[in-house]
Design brief:
There is one protein chain. This protein is of the alpha+beta class. It is 24% helix and 35% strand. It has 2 domains: 2-306 and 346-375, no CATH class; 307-345. The strands form 6 sheets. Strands 1, 2, 4, 7, 8, 11, 12, 13, 15, 16 and 23 form an 11-stranded antiparallel β-sheet that branches. A 3-stranded antiparallel β-sheet has the order 3-10-9.
């Protein structure tokens, strides 16, 4: 993230803006396994900001994919065989949705990467009337990444977007793709449509699989461009005033073998937590105290854990590339040197993310979800 922020600062200065970009990390902060995003100096698990939300400057290398998790409730435990039959029916007879006059074919992406459909038994810790069973549908909108239905979301997949973008070379031998003025406005409008489609897509899939008997609990995104200058990079936004939130309930999805959790979101961080984290002096020095108090973040998952790597001890720069020298947990004197993290051995972190979220008062725990089964089909 230091490399990414440094690049954004330099470009802000070039365009006459204050170099004030910052990143607020959530407890599930991790690397991005997307090669393009990683090489741009961007991590995952938090909120990145480079302005007041109204400055028409958008950094495309963040690659918003509009991923989210729908949480639905059921009165009866679902039959896994019936669900598989319904999924097979959907795959053989694709769903379509008309968005702004365009008929979009629904792309099934719930067996890709960390996307899934999970079912749970509810252990309620609140006065909220949750049903006895819930399911998660975790997915994004690959349909809109290229330019088949408009401008496109991904600068490395949409030729239209790539041609429109201004390419800014940086001293870190990385090209940042940006949009300004009317082009930024067009892209933000396209993102708003993608947010709408992302939510609707998960609802369509939920009803197609589980039927009309479902109770919609929440359907938040955790990876999206909120405005011209704010990007949630794998983090729930708990701002109660956000027009994009239709519920104050948010999921934290951990590994398939352990419980997941539902939280009621709240404004964060508070003054006591800021002081306990030793953020107070730094925030005042960087003139970011107001922004820290309006972080409004909550993890959406566990983040990656690398079973053999202890920490980065050195960075080697050679021929426009960065090589990260990492010490190993088994033998501190041994090192692993990596350039691309895409194929690193990894697993997901567990309950420590939830415990840290409670400790930092990022939200109120309202339910534990005990896993029944996970579908990646």
């Amino acid at each position: 993230m230091k490399y990414g922020l440094a690049q954004i600062h330099l470009i802000q200065e070039k365009y006459g803006l204050a170099p004030n970009a910052y990143f607020i990390s959530s407890p599930d902060e991790t690397i991005s396994r997307n090669k393009f995003r990683w090489n741009s100096g961007l991590g995952y698990g938090g909120k990145i900001n480079w302005g007041n939300g109204k400055e028409k400057l958008i950094f495309l290398n963040v690659k918003p994919n509009h991923c989210g998790i729908l949480v639905g409730g059921l009165e009866e435990e679902p039959n896994v065989v019936e669900l598989i039959e319904q999924i097979d029916e959907i795959k053989n007879n694709p769903l379509y949705y008309t968005l702004n006059g365009q008929e979009i074919k629904i792309n099934w992406d719930y067996d890709v990467s960390n996307h899934f459909i999970n079912c749970f038994r509810v252990q309620n810790f609140s006065d909220i009337d949750f049903p006895p069973y819930v399911f998660f549908i975790h997915g994004s909108v690959p349909e809109l990444q290229n330019d088949d239905y408009g401008l496109g979301l991904y600068v490395d997949k949409s030729n239209t977007l790539k041609e429109l973008a201004i390419k800014e070379a940086t001293p870190f031998e990385t090209v940042q793709h940006i949009l300004i003025d009317s082009d930024a406005k067009e892209y933000l409008n396209y993102n708003m449509k993608a947010i709408q489609f992302s939510k609707i897509k998960r609802e369509l899939i939920a009803k197609a699989i589980f039927g009309s008997r479902i109770q919609l609990i929440c359907n938040p995104l955790h990876q999206y461009l909120q405005d011209y200058n704010t990007m949630y990079l794998g983090s729930n936004c708990t701002d109660p005033h956000s027009p994009l939130n239709d519920s104050d309930i948010f999921p934290i999805a951990l590994r398939a073998d352990i419980s997941c959790y539902l939280f009621r979101g709240k404004k964060n961080l508070n003054q006591v937590i800021i002081k306990n984290l030793n953020f107070e002096k730094r925030a005042e020095k960087l003139e970011l105290m107001a922004q820290i108090k309006e972080a409004n973040i909550l993890p959406h998952g566990g983040g990656y854990n690398f079973p053999d790597i202890k920490r980065v001890v050195r960075v080697i720069e050679y021929k426009d590339q960065r090589y990260f020298v990492c010490s190993l947990k088994s033998k501190m004197e041994r090192v692993k040197i990596i350039r691309d993290v895409t194929n690193l051995q990894f697993k997901y972190r567990g309950r420590s993310v939830v415990l840290k979220s409670i400790q930092l008062e990022l939200g109120n725990l309202v339910a534990r979800l005990n896993p029944l089964f996970s579908l990646k089909v």
